[in-house]
Predict the structure.
Amino acid sequence: MRCDRLWIKARLATLAPQQPGIGAIEDGVVASRDGRILYAGPASQAPTLDPAETVDCEGRWITPGLIDPHTHLVFGGDRAQEFEMRLQGASYEEIARAGGGIVSTMHATRAASESDLLASALPRLDALLAEGATTIEVKSGYGLSLEHEIKCLRAARRLASERQVRIVTTFLGAHALPPEWSGDPDGYIDEICDRMIPAVAAEGLADAVDAFCEGIGFSPAQTRRVFAAAQAHGLPVKLHAEQLSNQHGAALAAEFGALSADHLEHLDTDGVAAMARAGVVATLLPGAFYSVRETRLPPVDDLRRAGVPIALATDCNPGTSPLTSLLLTMNMAATLFRLTVDECLAGVTREAARALGLLGEIGTLEAGKACDLAIWDIERPAELVYRMGFNPLHARVWSGK
């Protein structure tokens, strides 16, 4: 059987759901053809292969390429001053109500050109790629007007032409209330539903629609309208839910069959049950938990018992999670949220793919999927979770390259 490339003498963490744990295989091989996995499994069971190139992994571990399913990678400016304010005791909500937060980044983002936004996002993207990321979700949400939201989404799409990476874009117009709509949040929701979502859908700029359902964001009723408009234009939904308070957003997300509900520190048992019934992924964001000094943990045990899949993401953003490391994200999830090594590895591969609606394409080492690999200089997978500030990536493979 002809193949383009064959990786031999490797240890595999396939993350295949039908295999126990991380699907560890000691004497493994991976074969690719035309950018897709032809075979991934034990060398003893491999078909007869005729590779154009053979790569000796010398006992290194291969995992699926890492996936970051929640980032705000495209934005202007920074919010280091707010970091100092938090050090002095100001809360996230107090900063936002004082004119900081998302609206502060909005001003810098509106002042930046599309090329400026692309240029400033590339170093953040490169940091993720250097740790084995092959797929990254990028949200808009800092333009907060049709013109500037489209500018951000176009910049995000252009990242995929600058680097070998899969970029998934999400429209997050319902991120905060812009100043020109002050006092009229329902009017802004009208703008999102009647003008912004149709325009974004018509240009094919978004793969999903998100919203910030929170006391300082948008109400469940307003979020419901955004979700209905998204679905009317054929776009799946996801939600920033239960980060600062319990707005019952996770249950609303479940009602609409959302891909994921993200943050979830204030999620209650009814919300967990609703997510489980609807198959909504719980995307946990330990970087934001750490940065805003949150003390209420997401209900990990409840999620486990209910069988809700758990994904992990950096939540890379300028204000509450200036984090560009999935390796550190895993360490934080294990240390702060008490996730296991297996859960952490699944959270940035298989379950992250599920959170993007792409599990049929990426996230595990299985025949037919995109050949996205991360090859590691480690003795055991736990090293990827327990180390901090250490990158053992040996090679990154995207679409077989």
Notes: The two ends are 19 Å apart (CA to CA).
